[in-house]
Amino acid sequence: GYRKGGYHAARPGDRFAGGRFVAQRKIGWGNFSTVWLAYDTLHSRFVALKIQKSARDYAHAALHEIELLSAVAKGDPTNSKCVLRLLDHFKHAGPNGRHVCLVTEFLGDSLLRLIRYNRNKGIGLSRVKEICRSVLVGLDYLHSELGIIHTDLKPENVLLDSTINPAKDPVRSGFTPILDRPVGNQYGGTVISFSEKMLKMRARRAVAKISQRRVSIGGVGAQLEKERCLDGISLKCKIVDFGNACWADQQLAGEIQTRQYRAPEVIIGSGYSYSADMWSFACIAFELATGDLLFAPKNCQGCSEDEDHLALMMETLGKMPRKIATSGTRSKDYFDRHGDLKRIRRLKFWPLDRVLVERYNFTEPDAKGFSDFLRPMLDFTPENRPSAAQCLKHPWLN
Ligand code: ATP
Ligand code: MG
Ligand code: MG
């Protein structure tokens, strides 16, 4: 973490880019960076500041991300294509090294937050549809207009346009930006906790204001009615985190994607393209609708996570065609020449539409509609998967 080559330790009030951006509070982090809400004093607006770890590889990755996000911004002058907007970038010298920083529009909570807010019970199909539309618009733009494969689609990397908790939205809560670094005791934390306390107070007031409309507030600290709170907000969202994205014709990594969202062709090593993003997208849609991961592979006795993953896929989607199963550089590790898994012999088939009815209590028509939409994106043959543009035309969304 916070050492040479690692994260930059920022504090509220810290200034960046010659004083233009003022750090407000930390809003996220990943393996590569910390992300801060910052105030842009030049344009009087809140922005997100992604401060990359400083070691060379991280800096390199950030420069790559800047290259891709610049293309994204250039091709979408009205910022309507559901992909994060890059506003600026610069380098910041700190005690741990020089950090590449990306300035982007400030967005709301991630889909992961949204799923957790709903206690992993799914967010309702009309909301799922709304989010699917946005993500597909973003993917269609990346794939067919720019030639970019995202390669790391997952709920953490799709952000809502607005925050679930309105009190956390600096614009809607009327949050006054911190413009100065608190003076006085730098180490005791009293000064900093003062500004955090103010933030919390403001936040509480804003929550009360917004919730009054339909939620009765109990005593102090009454919990926000989380599900109802969603009714008022638009579920438009944007694709973020281009740290692993690539031009389709300049692929670097063989192994892409986060485990649970990884496409079968990536696991068996038979090459990938835009359709790998479509696989991840289907996994996200399922997770939004049910609150559960579509595939949650584990290391099992005598078999690897990869093999368990392939087995889970086949149990839900049917047997992988032999031609596909045997086509990858790693096929021999997992499959025999008939295209059967070598170490997992007995599969318990449970098709997607049945899972939706029997495990998640979907009505038959809901299950049919949703699985008709998802199944084609989960085709084992990548070329058979529909493009984002084709999915946008699917009757389930219209
Ligand atoms: P990873 O480990 O996934 O590669 P990363 O270090 O590349 O992560 P991001 O995924 O870009 O970083 O950002 C980390 C988190 O910060 C996001 O999941 C999100 O919660 C938050 N975040 C990022 N950008 C924004 C933004 N523009 N507005 C609001 N929150 C953001
Ligand atoms: Mg991320
Ligand atoms: Mg990243």
Automatic annotation (TrEMBL):
Catalytic activity: L-threonyl-[protein] + ATP = O-phospho-L-threonyl-[protein] + ADP + H(+); L-seryl-[protein] + ATP = O-phospho-L-seryl-[protein] + ADP + H(+)
Keyword Oxidoreductase: no
Keyword RNA-binding assigned: no
Positions of ATP binding: K50
Region forming the signal peptide: none
Protein kinase domain span: 21-397
Protein name: non-specific serine/threonine protein kinase
Biological classification of the source: Eukaryota, Viridiplantae, Streptophyta, Embryophyta, Tracheophyta
